[in-house]
Specification:
Blueprint: H1 2-30
Length: about 30
Amino acid sequence: MSSEESAQDVSDVRSGDVRTRRAVEISIGEE
């Protein structure tokens, strides 16, 4: 089960990075 949890953590981190990048791009675009 630990391996599954690790996989979920990795996917969450990746999705979080994508959201952060989009947020940054939007902020720059607004400026």
